[in-house]
Write a structure and sequence with these properties.
Helices cover about 35% and strands about 20% of the residues. The strands form five sheets. Strands 1, 2, 10, 11, 12, 13, 14, 15, 16, 17, 18, 20, 21 and 22 form a 14-stranded mixed β-sheet that branches. Strands 4-3-5-6-7 form a five-stranded parallel β-sheet, sandwiched between helices. Strands 8-9-19 form a three-stranded antiparallel β-sheet. The mean pLDDT is about 95. Helix 3 packs across helix 4, helix 3 packs across helix 7 and helix 8 packs across helix 9. By secondary structure, the chain is α/β, with parallel strands linked by helices. It has a domain of about 120 residues: ANL, C-terminal domain (GMP Synthetase, Chain A, domain 3, 2-Layer Sandwich), CATH 3.30.300.30. It is globular. A hairpin with a 2-residue loop joins strand 21 and strand 22. The termini are far apart.
Length: about 600
């Protein structure tokens, strides 16, 4: 078929995908308002048409003492078209182009410029070192890279060494070209001139959404990076499906704090708002979260459990400091009753607490790891909907999401409409490996056919996560590679015990693993614990907290409470108290198989 026929086929396929979801007899699929898109270029053009060129797309502070500036959908489309045109002029058509740096409009517009008619985008992890970045650029065959200014010397050195294909460097923060490094803002001006002179190479570029459009390198706890190949069809199916479970629209403002190179933030916190006509406000960094919440006043906040746990602890700490703990608990309890008849006492009586989120917050979504259901319930009791979802890079990344009117605190969510789920190799409790099948599942791992064959079997993606399903809802118990199998065949999920330890205020972080007992005949469960020393001092005093034996005794008291509720084979039999931070991935997950993480 010719290109026109291909685009007609792709549009019909998108329309049929939405129609199939709308036809589902599922009470949880409540928002049947998705519109068809075939690729990200189609998405951006339609968003400008649907929501208006003057509708605000981004809010960002471009300089330290400046107020937040607004960028419209129209300007975004104009900028990405100009940038894409200029990059074609520099020979990057149909090439691999990397993007790296802090969350900002320049990063977002660069990603869109590459994906909307230039080539394959390769988002890189800003926490990686120079040698790791060089290796990934070499593996991905990147010929161009757009970066924020702190990476300037790294990529100049990589280019000069000549051991990669890298030849075009673009500084996202520079005003003008210097020392052979191009300027993002100057490229946009150059591109506008080219378009004004009739250059339509980018504007008329043909899009092939079933081919690889994004190459993402995962940073697993094993330390082996895999390149996940995603098509734009994978991503667009997520964008069309997820909003049927959760209401978001052009009145929403998303708070962007998670790194954009992660698919969770990129798809859900960047591309989803673009699809739905929402606005994105960029946080200036973790230490500015509370300050920026006040300035941006968002309605949506996507985060990892660590962020929400931090806010939860900070809120309760402030409540206790003011001596209002009992009052707040009474109001929350009373509000559970009054809210059933439409009366929200929290907004009146707990407005100081709600101010922490800027005053307009409607939705908190946790992903990336398990979160304590009590924390979700606390935020819901405050009047802010809080729920969790389930994603994997290999699913672009959405696999499941809780419905926003009646979420299940202990479930990672309703399987994404249009996606199938099954559990294989079930044990006696019905727990087995979660497998997924759908149009969002990746094309495979880049240059790793054997690894791809291990996880993609007859169209089913074997996630490596263990769990069970209740109807369309998925429940996760742990990772297949982490499970501890005792000598008598019992399965122990480290994540379960870490969850119990995480509920203890005295515990900052923990990692559960198995070691042989003194006889060498069986495994025993060990927990390496990093105490929250501020909480420890509050309980036993500063002097006692400086004594390792007293700290360990205090920890054993808490572990004993947990052990009382556990069967013998799950009991924690040894603890290591750790002062140092655990070694983690750039995604802030503890590296389980690094030997030093097991030590005191």
């Amino acid at each position: 078929m010719d290109y026109k026929e291909r685009k007609e086929f792709e549009l019909k396929r998108a329309e049929e995908f939405i129609a199939s979801i709308n036809a589902m007899n599922d009470p949880d699929i409540m928002y049947k308002v998705s519109h068809p898109i075939t690729d990200l270029k189609d998405m951006m053009n339609k968003s400008v048409e649907r929501y208006g060129a003057d509708h605000v797309a981004f809010k960002q502070r471009f300089a330290k003492n400046e107020p937040f500036r607004e960028i419209t959908y129209g300007q975004t489309l104009e900028d990405l078209n100009a940038l894409g045109t200029a990059l074609i002029e520099h020979g990057l058509k149909d090439k691999r182009v990397a993007v790296i740096g802090d969350n900002c409009y320049q990063w977002a517009s660069s990603y869109l410029a590459v994906t909307c008619g230039l080539g394959v985008v390769v988002p890189l992890d800003k926490e990686l070192g120079a040698s790791e970045l060089e290796q990934l650029i070499k593996e991905a065959n990147c010929e161009g890279i757009l970066f924020t200014k702190k990476f300037l010397s790294i990529f100049q050195d990589i280019k000069e060494r000549g051991e990669t294909d890298l030849r075009v460097l673009v500084n996202l923060n520079a005003e003008k070209e210097a020392d052979g490094v191009l300027s993002w803002s100057q490229l946009i001006e150059d591109g506008k001139k080219l378009i004004a002179d009739g250059d339509r190479r980018y504007l008329d570029a043909e899009m092939y959404p079933d081919e690889m459009g994004v190459l993402l390198f995962t940073s697993g706890t094993t330390g082996i990076a895999k390149g996940v190949m995603l098509s734009q069809t994978n991503i667009c199916c997520d964008l069309m499906s997820a909003p049927t479970l959760l209401d978001t629209n052009e009145r929403d403002t998303f708070f962007s704090v998670l790194p954009l190179h992660h698919t969770y933030e990129c798809t859900c916190g960047f591309l989803m708002p673009m699809y739905k006509g929402s606005c994105i406000g960029y946080c200036e960094g973790l230490k500015y979260i509370q300050k920026n919440l006040q300035e941006i006043k968002p309605t949506f906040f996507l985060g990892v459990p660590l962020i929400f746990e931090m806010l939860y602890k900070a809120i309760w700490k402030n409540i206790r400091k003011q001596g209002k703990e009992e009052t707040v608990k009474k109001v929350l309890k009373l509000n559970k009753v009054t809210s059933k008849v439409g009366i929200n006492l929290n907004k009146l009586l707990l407005k100081d607490i709600l101010k922490v989120f800027g005053g307009n917050m409607d939705m908190l979504i946790a992903g990336g790891a398990a979160i304590d259901p009590q924390i979700l319930q606390f935020f819901r009791d405050l009047g802010i909907m809080a729920l969790q979802g389930y994603g994997l890079t290999e699913c672009a990344p959405m696999a499941a999401l809780n419905q926003d009117l009646n979420p299940r605190n202990d479930s990672v969510g309703h399987v994404l409409p249009g996606v199938e789920v099954k559990i294989i190799d079930k044990n006696e409790d019905g727990i087995g490996e979660i497998c997924l099948k759908g149009p969002n599942v990746m094309m495979g791992y880049y240059n790793m056919p054997e690894e791809t064959a291990k996880v993609l079997v007859d169209g089913w993606f074997h996630t490596g996560d263990l769990g069970y399903v209740d109807g369309p809802y998925i429940y996760i118990t742990g990772r297949k590679k982490n499970v501890i199998i005792t000598k008598n065949g019992k399965n122990v999920f480290p994540e379960e015990l870490e969850y119990y330890l995480g509920k203890v205020s005295l515990v900052s972080e923990s990692m559960v693993w198995a070691a042989q007992d003194d006889s060498g005949q069986d495994d025993l469960i060990v927990a390496t614990i990093k105490p929250d020393m501020e909480e420890v001092e509050a309980v036993i005093g500063k002097e006692a907290a400086a004594d390792p034996e007293k700290v360990e005794k205090l920890m054993w008291q808490e572990v004993d409470k947990i052990n009382k509720e556990l069967p013998f084979f799950k009991k924690i039999r040894r603890i290591n108290i750790r002062k140092e931070e655990f070694e983690k991935t750039t995604g802030k997950k503890i590296k389980r198989f690094v030997e030093s993480n097991k030590q005191k």
